[in-house]
Specification:
Radius of gyration: 19 Å
Strand content: over 45%
Shape: globular
Number of helices: 1
Largest sheet: 10 strands, mixed
Distance between the termini: 33 Å
Order of helices and strands: EEEEHEEEEEEEEEEEEE
């Protein structure tokens, strides 16, 4: 499970560092428990932020994101709980979500969960703390989305935007092979034509020619005035 955590930087205790940097630290504990009576997987991380003035301003405005991976022992439904502790103040935050891990052993076409975000121009490497605004956008923003597709030699992708059960936008997704038997479906959507409100974004992948097989995943997002 690859999790992207969104943290309100205003809840972190920043101090002044060398060369005008803003420093903060926090601890993360992630617990993923499956449907069976098996020991939960627990991952802990200690994170140090060293932000320059421009990145600090972005963090205060948009928040901080951090990616962490948790092993999943088998396919099925998992309850994922995350706790974050600010190192300096001891302030705590938490989140909880249910995640389904597909069975990749049966060879069927499968689409991973969809990541939707508004990337900052200063976003860092995916494995390091970065800056992004997740699943909440303004009309002047561009929504970037991405997901992985498994078990298809040739894939066509489509993205659909739905509001109140009605499709309001559809476009082809860019699909590229990853060299490991998987593909990535991704794209960028301009939101200027969409009114403020709650939406669902669905990515549909169609498999090899001659096989009428498709798989999809979705995520929700909000456009604010």
């Amino acid at each position: 499970l690859s999790l992207l955590l969104h943290i309100d930087a205003r809840d972190l205790s920043f101090t002044s560092g060398e060369s005008g940097r803003h420093n903060a630290g926090f601890e993360i504990v992630v617990r993923a428990a499956g449907e069976r009576n098996e020991p939960a997987q627990v991952v802990t991380k200690e994170v140090a932020l060293r932000l320059e003035a421009s990145s600090f301003a972005d963090a205060m405005r948009m928040g901080v994101t951090y990616r962490v991976s948790v092993p999943a022992q088998r396919a099925g439904l998992y309850e994922v709980r995350v706790a974050i502790r600010d190192t300096a103040s001891g302030k705590l935050g938490s989140a909880r979500e249910f995640v389904e891990v597909p069975d990749l052993k049966n060879g069927r076409l499968v689409v991973s969960g969809v990541l939707a975000y508004n990337a900052s121009p200063r976003e860092r490497d995916a494995d390091a703390p970065g800056l992004a605004e997740l699943r909440r956008f303004r009309r002047e923003d561009n929504l970037t989305y991405a997901c992985q597709v498994f078990h298809a030699k040739s894939v066509k992708g489509e993205v659909r935007i739905v509001r109140d059960g009605k499709q309001v936008l559809a476009a082809a997704a860019e699909v590229s092979g990853n060299g490991d038997g998987t593909s990535t479906a991704k794209g960028v959507i301009q939101l200027a034509t969409l009114a403020p409100g709650y939406y669902s974004l669905q990515v549909v992948a169609t498999g090899d020619p001659g096989k009428e097989v498709a798989a999809s995943q979705w995520t929700d997002f909000e456009i604010v005035p």
